[in-house]
Amino acid sequence: MLRILSALIISIFMALPAAAQQSVWVQIEAQRTLTGAQDAARGYAAAGVPDVTGFALPGGWYGIALGPYAAVDADNQLNQLRRAGVIPADSYIVDGGRFRTQFWPVGVTAPTEPVELETPQATEAPTDEETPVAAVEPEPVPEPDPIQTPDETLREAQASEQALDRDQKRLLQTALQWAGFYDSAIDGAYGRGTRRSMVAWQEANNHEPTGVLTTGQRAELLGAYNSILDGMGLQLVRDDASGIEMQIPTGVVKFAEYEPPFARFDASGDVAAQVLLISQPGDQTRMFGLYEILQTLAIIPPTGERSRRDRGFEIEGFDENVHSYTSVVLENNQIKGFTLVWPAGDDERRRRVLAEMQASFATIDGVLDPAIARPDEDQAIDLVAGLAVRKPVRDRSGFYINGAGEVLTTIEAIGECTSITLGMEHEATVVHQDENLGLAILRPTTRLAPPAVAEFQTGVPRLQAEVAVAGFPYGGVLTTPALTFGTLADIRGLNGEDDVKRLSIYAQPGDAGGPVYDNGGAVLGMLLPKVQTNGQALPPEVSFSVDADQIIASVTGAGLNVVTTESVAYMTPEALTLMAADMAVLVSCWND
């Protein structure tokens, strides 16, 4: 086949008459990168296309051309090669005025005369008398780039433009907008705004400013617009397991595995990109649950727009590392969508890739089978379908102090936080701090109705009485607080301080900020974090709590309400555990 094609091309060229006129070239394509242009030139040459040349162009582009040829032959040559199907249909004739350094063939200087297509006749060598003396040529004076010869007349350009459909016209407006020449509606209607943008683009690219783009100019504009997708390998992928079909940048991601509800495509090269196809059966309630779960993933930062509707949702998240976008729809009890994760700072390529994915997304029969992936040793509590969950800087404990849902916690819990959550769900803000006592009051941004609130004990407790601390010693691993039991070692600190009590209890760092209960469930104080003073480490069972009277004075002084009691009662450990589950809450510090 290749021999037949080569013979056809050669016969076309042999049939053309020779002429020594102004040099012209047939430009067949332009590439954004030198490597891409060299590969293209090599491909044409390997296919038997003769006289393949390559030149650098203004604006960082690289052109592939054939020639040079005599101008009188160029039209006929262009038409024959187009009909033969060996060059692109949008190839056009140029005068070479914009050609710069020649990169193909390597080491060849750009010719200044047309290639003669006939076999040259032998000539006699000049005699000594006829040998010319080399003359010193003056340095050429740089001249401005000449206006390129249009590939179509204005009337022809108008006719070819009229043949475009509305989508093709919108695409040209989009490309003009991307190039910085158009700022109006993408509607496919060519009014004065579109014509002005075309004139501006033509002037900037050294074309005659007619306000109507020729076929070649449209190809040049769209080539520049699409060059940013070089190497992305956008390909229509049909995944029958998940029931999704869409364009995926296979040049930078490759299929990794099924981890329901995801079909995961991980980065395959230097671009730290990731694509998730989302597919699972379910109703609106399950879709809303997925909406919440996705926002806990590390690949979806908390900063960005969120939009949840009855039949779908969108989540955008970005930070200094990644920029992700998720879109999900609910149809016929099937939840389907996708997530694109892209490295931060590469917004232009991200937007183009995302636009192609959004436009091509389609659902087909089938939904991802939850049993498609078997459990293995890589399972972890901080992974959701193989994806890392976003983690807080620190977790501490707190407890509700009034019916408004305000929470008392240690001041250590809120240091250097960009956001604070209660129970990993509810955003909260700091409304009061007491540096001396080491406590803080948090207020949820949306009003909560806690099932139980603290009753602060104002009576004097008995030494060596049994006490308990409710807290989250393992952070968010456990969904309910754990109770740790101990004794009241002293109603004062080691140096006789009246504002703290000393406990004998084996508490963990995550318990700090939790309530300290007496036998009847009244709150004696708040557990303080363990600190070393003057390099001294106390025994592990020694802990301290802020005295209830000090807490009451600080909180009420800030204009906040608390509940107090003087009664001494008894509560079983089981009942105390249930009450603590309603009163204690996980306080998480985030630094996004």
Automatic annotation (TrEMBL):
InterPro entries named in the record: Peptidase_S1_PA, Peptidoglycan-bd-like, PGBD-like_sf, PGBDSf
Protein name: Putative peptidoglycan binding domain protein
Entries under Pfam families matching the protein: PG_binding_1, Trypsin_2
Source species, domain of life: Bacteria
Organism: Octadecabacter temperatus
